[in-house]
Design a protein that fits this description.
heterotrimer, A alpha/beta (about 375), B alpha/beta (about 260), C alpha/beta (about 475), A: about 375 residues, Rossmann fold, four-stranded parallel β-sheet, C: Rossmann fold, about 55% helix
């Protein structure tokens, strides 16, 4: 089971995706946790979270993006240009942040040059930066626009009852993940942060029914596990998106455990249920937009800080690692605020700036983390 | 009780042999490609000078980027902790340490016991490191010592593209071609270096006394500009060579870990 | 930040510099020349602007009046709001709120002080704001974060959906200073009913926010008065922009900067109208005589800046252009999207423009919301760069209309939104036959690329492309 998750976390076109495609079914990629998966589940299409994992060179990424851009979308474009995402039948780009939203243009222009590697369905999905009555209304309309476009392109009907069913299935995941979270944050937990990340990653890259089944079994099994990872410092990981299990391994080493996070490939994947009452499109839009974990939702810092403090307390966190990808100013700056406000409350923090992509600085990173652990005693 | 500290950095490797908290001898060599070879050689040199054999070393702490690769050490400690420890020994009133090494620099704040409570490192690019000064000195055709002294004679220091060493180098060449006085360029180089350090130090929070370790501590131009930017006097270290701070700290840890009293 | 920098109030320093500058021409020419010797770092601006006569004088008066309001805001009973350049300050003036526009202050400090905003830029990093963020806000934000500027009551921005690093500066400031925050969020599409509704809903939210935190109620007559003044200003700007189409262009090189500067400072206020009128007067006079606005009198080239200028010390960019006989055909910041703007008519872009309807409160709010959604950058850098009404279309249309011989991009390394698309944009404009140059400098920070290097690379571009 855990091996399945680890494998899916490392292989983009994994065997679950391959099997799905062999059955003649479609896959649609998306780049941001503000896109409701349920829409595609309801259409019988596999929603797949596009990642940048495994990009080696940056030749294609640097051809289209300028130099002062986050390396995550550059890696995504690199993989797309190499054909690694050729299994996608569609892609949805959001203005999650400025670096990410330009993946839209860069991907299209790359296709203009190569005439290859472009999914037939390509959609710019506008996500507002605030939660108000009028922004929700706008976002509901935007979600309906996405639904109509998908219906027309893939020749499917996305009916309300299908959406409701999808919501229920995805809520099952969220409930299972919340149970998993409880296990992960126990005293001497049976599972390390690296595996926790693999579990989340798998959820973004395989059919939801298979995932729920495997996740249910896993939660059952490790819930009863006698294995104990004890005597380690308990860390919380905040900041920019990370889909690299090895980064968490470097952070954990042999002396630490990442027991909590607020990451895009992390708790944002499963926090908050979608209401199963009311109009499903509205409920999906509301759940997405109400998510204020990402600093793209401007002016909500205090709420995010509050949540993090609560999590530090409930998960018994010894220290917080505030990491950001270079040029990710949203997380980078907010990390500065978190450091100020958490340290004020006696919660040790360490800021870490890094590049996304192959980890080439593990020595330096290790040194800083070791020094931080030395501080934690 | 004889102990040792060995600090293998990216540019230089250092070793300190200590008996009962007093330095018997130290050694400094240019680092080799393989960290364990650097460690072996610098230790050998330090031991020879001290007239001590490896067997007599009760405890040895390794630090620096090569710390996990050393064969003879009993324990590895990060250079952050070692520099903090070493700096406190070099300057007992130090509450803040700014260390500029060959390829990285760090600022750290210490508690009363000399433990590092907050630190930041800057090692993304050579600018803001000793390497930056080396490159610039070479372009200007002066020694590192001369580069440091030139600030005092500058009239109108230039502003340098300091975010990137390569661009800065191009700038320095352009200024030379435009016959800008070499002192003004040198002062621009030292100022750029000092400003980058000032940001790091202020981010950690400046607390007196401040001391500087690492090779750049010997550059007066950088140190005096930094003093202006931080608004504090940086205490000069006289007890021992500030470049040895990491190895001294490692030796002090070795002393403690071997059961020696606090020094 | 050095101790002595902390001891001087930032706003006061700028006020002192600009209010003195507004008076240096009051004496004889000889006295003026003598004063210039004592202000080596301000001299460049003084000469570039005051050299244009009444227009320059009025513009510097505008700057001085703005700073006078800023340093005396509390005494004059004004609330203060930190805000951004691409936000029309008119609504704030209508509510007696002093807009503290970060980018404008950064430009003022960058232009007039030898060290520019270096210490404030760095101060932001020291308190945790990333060094990769945009220097346009950082340059003055540092002063307010350090508490050496005016007291702040609230923070307002309109760049979410347009520019993350900009929006983030305000969001950070709000969290850091613990002040109320409001954002006008911009949907990816400029026009259409959905976007209009969103813009209007958002603008109503803004008014409610401003009323709440200023303790004042929006006065219909006051708003109408401000909007009437905007109408006048739009007319003036439209004619100035039209004059810039002439060959040779009769406008002096710094005019473009002064046009948008006046509007960022005082949109809807009489000070701005006076400056624009003086600029138009000189432009008309030159046009009537068929002469170029360049100091040398000979127009060799026409350049269009597709983003922002380069503001470091002494207006060296403008001086270099003027020296080389290059006529400055403006940048994306200076364009008005009023219905009567020449490019709106020329390219039939009425859907992308705004017009002011002063009938009642609703129509006025709608007008102001749409005006604000059509501010520079906010208008054209929201959706994909090649979508209708966006960056590429605007650049191509404007460059063609003004018969630009080349296009230059300059920004800051903090500009995620343009660095993600500028290579693509440059390819397209090159394909359209317009040589395009990308500067890698920081408009506000010579430490990224020194001005000397920037100038050398730019001149090399002109040479290599056979333009000069």
């Amino acid at each position: 089971m855990m091996e399945d998750f680890r494998e899916v976390a490392r292989v983009l076109n994994n065997r679950f995706v391959q099997k799905w495609k062999d059955e003649g079914k479609k896959v649609v990629g998306y780049t941001c946790s503000y896109v409701p998966d349920e829409i595609f589940y309801a259409a019988g299409i596999l929603p797949y979270r596009v990642r940048g994992f495994g990009a080696g060179a940056m030749t294609i990424g640097d051809t289209y993006f300028g130099p002062f851009i986050c390396s995550l979308p550059k890696c995504m474009l690199q993989l797309a240009g190499q054909g690694d995402f050729d299994f996608l039948d569609g892609a949805i780009i959001t203005p999650g942040c400025d670096s990410m939203r330009r993946l839209d243009e860069c991907w299209r222009k790359m296709h203009d040059d190569t005439k290859e590697h472009m999914p037939g369905f390509f959609f710019h999905f506008g996500v507002p930066h605030k939660y108000t009555e009028y922004s929700v209304k706008w976002f509901v309309d935007e979600t309906r626009r996405l639904i109509r476009a998908a219906e027309s392109h893939f020749n499917v009907a996305i009916k309300n009852e299908k959406l409701l069913e999808a919501i229920k299935v995805h809520n099952v995941t969220r409930e299972l993940m919340n149970r998993f979270d409880e296990i992960r944050t126990r005293k001497d937990p049976p599972v390390a942060g690296a595996d926790s990340l693999a579990i989340v990653l798998a959820g973004t890259a395989m059919p939801r029914d298979d995932y729920n089944r495997l996740l249910g079994d896993l939660v059952e099994e490790i819930g009863k596990s006698a294995k104990k990872l004890n005597g380690r410092k308990r860390l919380m990981l905040l900041g920019s998106a990370n889909d690299d299990v090895d980064l968490v391994k470097i952070i954990e080493g042999e002396r630490a455990l990442v027991v909590a996070d607020n990451l895009c490939f992390g708790s944002r994947f499963y926090s908050d249920l979608v209401s199963e009452e009311g109009d499903p499109v509205e409920e999906l839009a509301k759940r997405s937009l109400a998510h204020n974990d990402c600093p793209r939702m401007y002016g909500e810092y205090r709420e995010r800080l509050k949540k993090i403090k609560e999590k530090v307390a409930t998960a018994g966190v010894d220290g917080v690692i505030l990491q950001n990808i270079r040029f990710c100013d949203l997380h980078g700056s907010e990390n500065g605020l978190f450091e100020r406000d958490l340290e004020k409350e006696g919660i040790p923090c360490m800021r870490l700036e890094r590049e996304y992509g192959p980890i080439v600085e593990s020595g330096r990173m290790r040194m800083r983390i070791d020094a931080f652990l030395e501080r934690l005693g | 009780m004889i102990v040792a500290g060995c600090d293998v950095g990216s540019l230089t490797s250092k070793a300190v042999i200590m008996r009962d908290g007093r330095i018997l001898n130290s050694a400094l060599i240019k680092s080799k490609a393989k960290p364990w070879e650097s460690a072996d050689e610098v230790m050998k040199s330090a031991l020879e000078g001290a007239g001590v054999s490896m067997k007599e070393i009760v405890f040895c702490v390794g630090t620096g980027y090569g710390r996990d690769k050393m064969k003879f050490i009993n324990e590895a400690v990060t250079e952050i902790a070692c520099h903090g420890k070493g700096a406190r020994w070099l300057l007992p009133t130090a509450m803040m340490v700014i260390d500029i090494g060959g390829q990285d620099c760090k600022a750290m704040r210490l508690d009363r016991d000399g433990r590092v409570v907050k630190f930041m490192t800057n090692d993304k690019c050579a600018s803001g490191t000793g390497r930056f000064l080396e490159v610039m000195a070479r372009v200007l055709g002066v020694s590192l010592e001369e580069l440091g002294e030139m600030s005092a004679r500058a009239q109108a220091p230039i502003t340098l593209a300091s975010a990137c060493t390569v661009w800065a180098q191009a700038d320095v060449i352009a200024h030379l071609n435009n016959r800008v006085p070499i002192e003004d360029i040198a002062a621009g180089v030292n100022n750029a270096m000092a400003s980058r350090m000032a940001v790091l130090a202020n981010s950690v929070g400046v607390e007196r006394d401040v001391c500087m370790t690492g090779g750049v501590a010997k550059n007066d131009g950088v140190v005096s500009t930094l003093e202006k930017l931080l608004g504090v006097r940086i205490k000069r270290i006289r007890r021992y060579d500030p470049q040895m701070a990491g190895a001294i700290g490692a030796a002090l840890f070795a002393h403690e870990k071997a059961g020696g009293g606090l020094r | 930040m050095r101790r002595e920098t902390r001891e001087y109030n930032f706003d006061w320093m700028l006020w002192s510099a600009f209010s003195s500058a507004s008076r240096i021409k009051m004496g004889t020419e000889k006295e003026y020349r003598t004063v210039l010797k004592y202000i080596p770092y301000f001299r460049g601006i003084a000469e570039a602007m005051l050299g244009t006569g009444e227009a320059g004088q009025k513009f510097i008066d505008c700057c001085a009046a703005y700073l006078d309001n800023l340093v005396n805001a509390r005494e004059r009973g004004l609330k203060t709001a930190i805000t951004t350049f691409c936000f029309s300050p008119a609504i704030m003036y209508a509510l007696d709120i002093m807009p503290i526009c970060l980018e404008v202050l950064t430009v003022m400090q960058t232009l007039s002080y030898k060290r520019g905003t270096v210490e404030f830029l760095d101060y932001c990093n020291e308190v945790g704001y990333t060094e990769t963020s945009c220097s346009a806000q950082r340059g003055s934000l540092g002063a307010y974060l350090a508490g050496v500027g005016a007291e702040i009551d609230m923070i307002v921005t309109d760049t979410p959906g347009v520019c993350d690093t900009n929006a983030n500066a305000f969001s950070f400031a709000s969290a850091y200073l613990d002040k109320p925050f409001f954002q006008l969020d911009m949907p990816p599409q400029l026009d259409g009913e959905r976007s209009d509704d969103y813009h209007i809903g958002d603008f109503k939210g803004l008014i409610a926010f401003l009323e709440q935190h200023s303790g004042r109620k929006l006065d219909l007559d006051r708003l109408r008065e401000v909007m009437r003044e905007i109408e006048k200003q739009d007319e003036l700007v439209a004619e100035i922009e039209d004059l810039a189409r002439l060959v040779p262009n009769p406008l002096p090189v710094p005019f473009n900067f002064m046009v948008h500067g006046s509007r960022f400072l005082f949109a809807g206020m009489k000070e701005c109208t006076a400056a624009l009128e003086a600029m138009l007067k000189l432009g008309r006079e030159n046009a009537a005589r068929g002469i170029s606005g360049l100091t040398g009198g000979v127009e060799k080239l026409r350049g269009f800046w597709c983003y922002i200028d380069h503001y470091t010390q002494s207006m060296r960019l403008w001086q270099m252009l003027d020296r080389n006989g290059i006529c400055y055909e403006g940048n994306i910041l200076s364009r008005s999207w009023a219905m009567n703007a020449p490019h709106v008519k020329e390219f039939g872009k009425e859907d992308a423009a705004y017009s002011l309807d002063l009938t009642d409160l609703d129509s006025m709010i709608r007008s102001m919301a749409l005006l604000n959604s059509r501010m520079p950058m906010v208008k054209s850098i929201r959706g994909p760069y090649d979508a209708p009404n966006m960056w590429l279309e605007d650049n191509l249309n404007l460059a063609r209309m003004y018969r630009a011989d080349f296009i230059v991009y300059n920004g800051t390394p903090g500009c995620r939104n343009t660095w993600g698309m500028v290579k693509l944009m440059a390819r397209d404009t090159e394909k359209a036959g317009i040589p395009t140059f990308i500067m890698y400098a920081d408009a506000f920070d010579d430490r990224v690329e020194s001005w000397e290097a920037t100038q050398e690379r730019f001149e090399e571009f002109l040479k290599v492309r056979g333009l000069l």
